[in-house]
Amino acid sequence: MDGTNKGGSGLAGVKALVFDVFGTVVDWRTSVIGDLTAFGQQKGIEADWAAFADAWRAGYAPGMDRVRKGERPWANIDVLHRERLDALLDQFGIENLSEAEKRHLNLAWHRLSGWPDTVPGLTRLKQRYIISTFSNGSVPCLVDTAKHAGLPWDAVFSADIVRHFKPDPETYLGVIAFFGLQPHEVMLVAAHNYDLRHGRAYGMRTAYVNRPTEYGPRQSKDLAAESDWDVVAGSMTELADRLCG
Amino acid sequence: MDGTNKGGSGLAGVKALVFDVFGTVVDWRTSVIGDLTAFGQQKGIEADWAAFADAWRAGYAPGMDRVRKGERPWANIDVLHRERLDALLDQFGIENLSEAEKRHLNLAWHRLSGWPDTVPGLTRLKQRYIISTFSNGSVPCLVDTAKHAGLPWDAVFSADIVRHFKPDPETYLGVIAFFGLQPHEVMLVAAHNYDLRHGRAYGMRTAYVNRPTEYGPRQSKDLAAESDWDVVAGSMTELADRLCG
User: Fold this and answer.
1) For the segment B154-200, what is each residue's pLDDT rounded down to a tens digit?
2) Contact B179/A143, CB-based, under 8 Å?
3) Which portions of chain B are predicted below pLDDT 50?
4) Which residues of A touch B78 (CB under 8 A)?
5) Closest CB from B130, B139, B146 relative to A179
6) Which Pfam families match (chains A, B) (predicted)?
C-alpha cells in the first residue's frame, strides 16, 4: 500500500462503486472516431474525423454549463450532442445528410467501447460490490453503451434521474440517496480529479483510475492523481486487485 | 400462435421489456417465509411464519395507497415494510428483538429468489431486448434482490425514481420516458392483470406471465389472463420462446 492510499478499514464500509463513464469506463474518443470514419467511408465523405470528434466533445462541458447555470431548461446529453452535431456538420461543410443519417451519427455516443481492462475489472468488482454508472450520459446512452460494450452494471444512475449534470450537488447527493446508503459507503471511481474532489466533499470514498490517453496524444489534464484519493489505480483490473484482494 | 396473442408485426417495434418484480420475477412468498423461518429457528422463536408473511404482504397495497392518495408524504417500500413489520411483531407477540434484528427481518424483502424459470428466461430475453425492473420496490430492494437472485437487469427502474407507486400514471409514463422510447416500443411483463390494463392504457405492449401460486395455495386472483394481452405465457422461458423464437 503506497502513501497515497488510505486503504484498510477506511474502505471496509464501501458497499457500492459508482463510476464515471466517459473516459473512465469507455474510450469514447477512439469509439467515436471509429464510428465517424466508418460512416464517412460508407457514404464517401472525407473529413478529419478525429478533429470532428474532438470538436464534438469540446462542446460537451459548455453545453451542460448552459443547463447548469439555468440559461435553458433541462436538456439531456443526447439533445446537447445533437445540437452540437448539427453545428459541426455545417462547420465541416458536410451537407445533404438525411435526418436518419444525423440520428445515426448522434448515436455514436451510444456505441462506445470499454478500455481493454474495463470488462474484466468490472466483472471482478461486481462480485463484491454494487456497481453502477454515475454519469452525465443519458439513460439510453448508458444502457445502449452497456449492451454494446458488455458492461455488467447492477444499476444505471444518470443525470437524467436528477435532471442535473455533474458537478451539481444534486448528482452526488442523488446517487448516494438512490442506493439508500451513507456517503462513506459509496466510492466514486473516476479518471477526472475534479469529479473526485466533488465526491470527496460530500463524504464519498474516491478511486482515481488513470486514463492519460482519454483525449488522445495531446491530453493536457488528468494525467495523474492530484490528491490523496483513497485508491489510485492504472486500470480497472488494478482497482479490482486493490479492492478485492 | 393462439387467439389471445396479437404477435407478429405488432411486437416488432418492441425495444425494452419492463418487468413487474414481486410475483412476476421473484417468488416473494416462499422467499420471505423461508427467511422468517430460518430467523425463528436461529432465535428460538415459534410462530406461524406463513401467516406472518401473508399478513406482511397484506399491508403492502394499503400502505402504498396512503401515499398514493396523498395522505402522507412519499415513503418508499422499505419504510412501509418496516412500519408493517413493527405492527405485526406486536400482533404476533414477538418481543425483545433488537433494532439490528428488526432491520435484518425487514431486509427479507431484499433477499428474494427468482422462480425456477426466471434467470434462464431473462438471460435469453436480454440478448434481444433491454430488460429492466418496473417495480414498486425500492432501488436498494431491487438491486439487492438482483444480486441475491442473479437477475441480469440492464437497468433498474423503481417507484423511488418517480416517487410514485404503480398504478399512478407517473410510473408508466415515467418508465417509457426513462428509456427515451415510444409507448409501443416498451412491453410491460407482469403476472397481474390490473398492471397490464394500466400499461395498455398508456400504449405499452403487454405480456402476461401466469403465476398462480404467487399468493400460495389459496390464491384467488390473477389465475389466468383476463384480456387479450399481446403475449400470454406460463413462464419466463415460454415468454422467451415467444419473443426470441
Assistant:
1) 999 999 999 999 999 999 999 999 999 999 999 999 999 999 999 99
2) yes
3) 1-8
4) 180
5) B139
6) Hydrolase (PF00702)
Largest Cα span, chain A = 60
Using the beta-carbon criterion (under 8 Å), do B179 and A140 form an inter-chain contact? yes
Of B139, B178, B179, the CB nearest to A180: B139
**pLDDT value of position B1:** 38
Q: Is B213 exposed, middle or buried (0-12, 13-18, 19+ CB in 10 A)?
A: middle
Q: What's the mean pLDDT in A188-208?
A: 98
Let me know: does A195 contact A206? Beta carbons within 8 Å: no
Cβ pair B178:A139 closer than 8 A: yes
Options 3.30.980.10, 1.20.1050.10, 1.10.150.240, 1.10.390.10; CATH for A29-110 is 1.10.150.240
Minimal-distance CA residue of chain A relative to B139: A179
- Cβ distance B180 to A139 less than 8 Å, yes or no, reads yes
Q: What pLDDT was estimated at residue B3?
A: 39
Domain ranges in chain A with CATH number 1.10.150.240: 29-110
* Grid cell at residue B210: 401466469
For residue A229, give every residue at least 6 positions away whose Cβ sits within 8 Å of its Cβ, in sequence order, or none: A4, A5, A196, A200, A206, A207, A208
**Could you tell me the CATH superfamily of domain B8-27+114-244?**
HAD superfamily/HAD-like (3.40.50.1000)
* 8 Å CB contact of A179 and B78: no
Does pLDDT of A4 surpass 90? no
The nearest alpha carbon in chain B to A144 belongs to: B130
Which residue from B minimizes the CA distance to A178?
Answer: B139
